[in-house]
Amino acid sequence: MTDQSSAHSLDLIAMAHQAMIDAGFVPDEPQSVEVELKLIESTPQAALSGYPIPDLRALLWSSIDDRKSRDLDQVEYVERRPNGAIRLLVGIADVDALVKAGSQIDSHAEDNATSVYTGVKTFPMLPEELSTDRTSLVGDADRSAIVIEVVLATDGSVETSNVFRAMVHNYAKLSYEAIGSWLDSNSEVPAAIANAPAMQSQIRLQLETSLRLRELRREQGALELETIQVTPVLNNTGQVTDLATTERNSARDIIENFMIAANVAMAQFLETKGVTSLRRVVRTPEQWPRIVEIARGLGERLPDTPDSRALAGFLARRKVADPDHFADLSLATVKLLGPGEYVVQSPASPGEGHFGLAVNDYTHATAPNRRFADLVTQRLVKAVLANTPEPYTEQELRAIAAHCTEREDAARKVERKMRKVAAAVLLQGRIGQEFDAIVTGVTPKGTYARLINPPVDGRVMRGERGLRVGDKVRLKLLSTDPGRGFIDLGVKAKL
Fold first, then answer.
1. Torsion angle of alpha carbons 204, 208, 211, 215, nearest 10°?
2. Whether pTM exceeds 0.85
3. In angstroms, rounded to a whole number, what is the distance separating the alpha carbons of residues 196 and 310?
4. 366-376: pLDDT as tens digits
5. Residue partners of 377: CB distance under 8 A and separation at least 6
6. With contact defined as beta carbons under 8 Å apart, do 214 and 195 qualify?
7. What is the pLDDT of residues 239-258, one digit of tens each?
8. Residue 130 gets which letter from DSSP?
9. DSSP code per residue over 144-177
């Protein structure tokens, strides 16, 4: 157990840096990357497209992301057609234009494979000089992009889709917080669009498009889950003062639905072109019987064999019946579904699909500044568009898929550890208090639970025998060790 004064003296950024190293990441850029970066910085932006590409800068593109985000991977634009169909365009940052395969920057990015967001410090996959500027779709700048086009019928189904290169211009860098508040609460129009009536209409049409997509996804059996995401709040001396939770809103729904549509369209585009590619899959859950049991305890019946449409219906009904505890049910469901992984899809083999999204074709293509798998997918599609040989062999893709999956798992562990460090600091003065919680993990290494308020994770060290994922319990805070991110809990009662 760590006393209050020593906990406040913790250097959380240094701890995050060491956690990265312990997890096998390379948090510091090698000198070879810095040398290469200086050469890239002298490359004119106008020279990056490589050859003449369509100019779509006149379209009213915008981006919606976290308020503090500068590594902007995508911009969006929609337009209504006379027959009621909606044309959705998602522009993806052309990272490959500057980060060439086999370069020192590329090799460093491949090693880490993902950006890691610890809450106290972000460790970007690419140098910040690139990811927050030259390869970012920053506001009021011309950029080369990979554009994914999806034409949606009035029922949300896809009439046509395509992928091509183009020049784009981000006219409004918007935030989830401001746009969500405006759309959902009729709050003041965000400053970034207050004097632009056309942009206001554009965002409202994006919301309509998102709702059209979401309704179709519901019909197909996509799961709508609402898990609580927590970020530590630090004061100007680096001390933890609170834990901020991410609120779901319409702005986040817009981007989520657009990105799913874009990633499905990209996977299908590569398949129709006969290209071996990376896919993102969530397999049929092995712990389906436990999901069935949880539903039974709530008076619902699910089929004995995994069925995403049945599960989606159950979740939708529970959200209406008990919205206050829907996040708890969502968390248990996410844990029982298991994590996603990257696999290689050859044109001749059937896809494994994504159980949670209820789609057969799904890749990761929309975040090339943050995920190496997306950068690889970008290179695959650019080779198709340029009619050049595929840039990776199937064997190379399999190695990349395995490595990206492993690094993503490692990133989650680093992020989870730093959240627990911050939570342990925050809870150190509440030893002996009791909290409602939900069991989130039962493994040979231990039993784990998340407190409902504040939403922090800990290990159940006393009375854990017989607990299962999804159980609701009353726990007592036994001790905290901020230096190691330990929060130890004891069972007082099952709820």
1. 180
2. yes
3. 44
4. 999 999 999 99
5. 266, 270, 277, 278, 363, 364, 365, 368
6. no
7. 888 888 887 899 999 999 99
8. I
9. EEEEEEEEE-TTS-EEEEEEEEEEEEEEEEEEHH
